[in-house]
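Morning!

This is the sequence you dropped in the shared folder:
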Amino acid sequence: MTSTFFRSFLVSCLLLTGCATGDSGHALDKYVVQGMRETGAQGLAIAVVRGGVVTRVATWGKRNARGEPLTPDTVMYGASLTKAVFAYTVMQLVEEGRLDLDTSIAAYLPKALPEYAGEAGRYAAWQHLAGDERWRKLTPRILLTHSAGFSNFGFLEPDGKLKFHFDPGSRYAYSGDGLILLQFVIERGLGLDLGKEMQRRVFDRFGMKRTSMTWRPDFATNLADGWKEDGSVEAHDERSKTRAAGSMDTTIRDFAEFAAAYVRGDGLQPGSRAELTRPQLPILTASQFPSLQAIAPPERRHRDLTAGLGVITFDGPQGRGFQKGGHNDSTGNTWVCLERQQSCVVILSNDVRAEPLFPEIVRLILGETGMPWSWEYGPRSWARP
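The structure's back. Tokens below.
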């Protein structure tokens, strides 16, 4: 996003509305329309939650190359927003005594983790951990705080093998395989089907009628394809396997209902809900990716940035906030909330080029939150610290 566009937008915003925040403010609509034109983004959906209630759901643009409109009920890829929903499900299992956040995963598995060979098609190649007993130090809390010691995915390693890069629990490094390992523990250790559990415990409970962890044929009637950075179109992936790290399909209307329920604490005891966004582990890197980067010197760290369970937490001028993003080559999603106010912004886009608009959209709706955008997306010119 160019600085010229930001300056021209802010001038017009001040002249028109004084940049006051609001759910249906002219400034927000104007910014989105101008921003999509400037970036080339083809589709964008926004939901607003205030006081634990959904107050606005709006969409702009197209859902596919045929020009069919993006609507509040268009099925879009949830990407890593899935991780926050997964963590919410895990906390229900913790409340029921099925899991303990600080018990080794070894206590739940019938045999040693590296003995599960041939699992790479659905999970990861756990046999590559043979000879490294540090897997026994892994707990649900460590896996949900991205402190397992793994890279994002083992198949991305130079030799394609999952391995430990640091002692479990000692630092933050984003890892999809860490979340998938906890899924494995739930499915192989507890004998539960995660997709069915999330459907029953979250999607059905909160009226998320067009959300699922795997593809449903009825999604095809109103489905979003995606646009990549180069403007090419990518067809929606019909995911056939539940993946805790990111297989969820959803709509902006559905995820808004989850966001509202989450900040209200529905479906959990107050202590369990508070645990999700309690600061669990300091994050000491300058940005989120690459996931195995060196610890940053103090002056390059983001103050009060920590891992929660399935989300990151931060402190800002309005108190504690939390956030979860989702991204792939043709998807850009974010979910930012202010804890005390029970207020959130959810943004789903089927065009990765929309991401530069996210910081200003959140500011226009929630005001200054303290969200560390340059950590989330890296040190781009549009991402203010």
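Headline: Confidence is low (pLDDT under 50) at residues 1-22, 381-385.

More detail when I'm at my desk.
O.
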